[in-house]
What does this fold into?
Amino acid sequence: MIVNPASPALRPFSAILFDLDGTLVDTAPDLAFALNTLLEQEGFTALAYDAIRPVASNGSPGLLFLGFGILPDHKDYPLLQQRFIELYQDNITRETALFDGMEEVLSALEKANISWGIVTNKPAFLTAPLLKQLNLAHRAGCIVSADTTPFSKPHPAPMFHACEIIKHKPEQCLYIGDAARDIEAGKNANMQTVAALYGYISSDDNPDHWQADSSINHPRDILQWL
It folds into this structure.
């Protein structure tokens, strides 16, 4: 069992679950590439990367609203979403990689025989090829996508499903994410939660209000708990 010595309020834990986009893997560059390519194809000006990065965790609805100012009920949304997804699929690991220091963290967990897995709101048809191309699919103890269960985060169902796969009780797990819904999902499942402050956090977000059990500024901060 592991406990963070800097956070004595944390219960001991024996497994770590990660959000994907903005926590485990830096997918924003390729999501930005797909959005800007689509914008330019439609005659719009490409957006600055710094404007896109904080929205990357919100998927195509958030990115298309940022780029085109439309919601899913707009008549042009279905076609634009389809083209965006096709562009993203074709460039899914163009620049995407583990966050700096995360390989060191995963290797340390594996060396210590500590289970780790992924619970994401990314749909499986995008999650699976991404993790396969990054050579992570065979390493994760579980991979739970947005459509693996009938509900997605912040509902606890994906969290409970992950626990069933890795054979750990929710209260034995630590969940790390970069969005309010991640912390809410972990709490709803009675897991301990950690806010990844290096992730895709917008100026409108206030992680202090998420009430996570702890927070980290860099993936390597996880190593202090090992």
User: Anything to note?
Assistant: Helices lie at 28-41, 49-52, 59-68, 77-90, 102-111, 124-133, 157-166, 180-188. Residues 1-8 have pLDDT under 50 and may be disordered.
